[in-house]
Design a protein that fits this description.
A 5-stranded mixed β-sheet has the order 1-2-3-4-5, with helices on both faces. The protein has 2 domains: 19-75, lambda repressor-like DNA-binding domains (434 Repressor (Amino-terminal Domain)); 84-271, no CATH class. The chain has 272 residues and is of the alpha/beta class. It has helices spanning 3-8, 19-33, 38-45, 49-57, 65-75, 88-94, 97-112, 156-176, 194-202, 204-210, 215-223, 264-271; strands at residues 116-123, 130-138, 143-150, 183-191, 233-237. It has 12 helices and 5 strands.
Length: 272
């Protein structure tokens, strides 16, 4: 089993500190770094020591935003808000028309082969909430196919982390749908463009380690439950292709035929 998959199987943090506690701890740590007492700090803020103590403790129900802002500014602390949570980037892509076309194509192919399919399956919660692009189930062997669909790949590491998280959560998601999962196979399915294929080729060592399965073995297993379940796999698709083989090998897997499109823009133009 690959390293990223093992990491994804570990439990995620159950809770995070409240905002007031985080701010208070940062203020206190920086105050101590500059060697100010609570009394001296309060004087600089033109407040009293008790107010500083409450702020740093972070236990009050309603944080004093004006005092907190003044304290942060005085100490030179910059606050940033990270809205780029693990599932958000994929969620934005799911609203893209070309991505939706690819998801629809994958869904149809699986349905035609007897799989039960759901798209945009929500998993996790809070910061760790995400959406599985395509979740397939085959009742004859309890197989679960977890598919991450990509039209472009900007950060291959992030794609692997997301797919690992989705694989970890797929059994619970499947059970919530009334399915009985026994086998889980994660797969990255990407738009067949030269741009994407080149990005995959540039990460060939990582792919061979983390996604050692190929399009042929994945397609054979999707068609026939008697076939041995493949390892985590990667394959390419062209959602407007009429070819019988719907999952294509990547260039790194030895495919010689050119990809269907130069890049995302060319694919979008063709599909419109």
């Amino acid at each position: 089993m690959s390293v990223w998959y093992q990491m994804a199987m570990r439990s995620l943090p159950s809770s995070e500190p409240e905002l007031g506690t985080l701010i208070g701890a940062a203020i206190k740590a920086m105050r101590l770094d500059v060697s100010w007492t609570e009394r001296e700090f309060a004087a600089r803020l033109r407040t009293n020591q008790a107010a500083v103590h409450r702020l740093e403790a972070g236990r009050q129900r309603h944080i004093d935003s004006q005092l907190a802002t003044a304290a942060l500014r005085l100490l030179g602390i910059r606050v940033s808000v990270d809205s780029n949570t693990p599932g958000r980037a994929g969620r934005r892509e799911q609203r893209d028309a070309i991505h939706a076309r690819c998801v629809g194509y994958v869904t149809r192919q699986l349905t035609q082969r007897g799989w039960e399919v759901r798209s945009e399956v929500e998993i996790g919660e809070d910061r760790y909430r995400g959406w599985i692009d395509v979740l397939g189930y085959r009742s004859s062997d309890g197989a679960i196919l977890v598919i991450e669909v990509k039209t472009q790949i900007d950060d291959f590491g992030r794609v692997l982390r997301s797919l690992g998280c989705y694989a970890r959560s797929s059994r619970d998601a499947a059970r919530s749908l009334g399915w009985r999962p026994r086998i889980v196979v994660p797969a990255l399915i990407a738009l067949a463009s030269v741009e994407t294929d080149s990005r995959l080729a540039a990460n060939v060592d990582l792919i061979r380690n983390e996604l050692p399965g190929d399009a042929d073995s994945l397609a054979a297993w999707v068609d026939d439950p008697a076939t041995k379940a493949p390892k985590p796999s990667v394959a390419l698709i062209d959602p407007i292709s009429r070819r019988r083989a719907w999952l294509w090998r990547t260039r790194a897997d030895g495919r010689r035929r050119p990809a269907a499109y130069a890049d995302y823009r060319a694919a979008a133009a063709a599909m419109r």
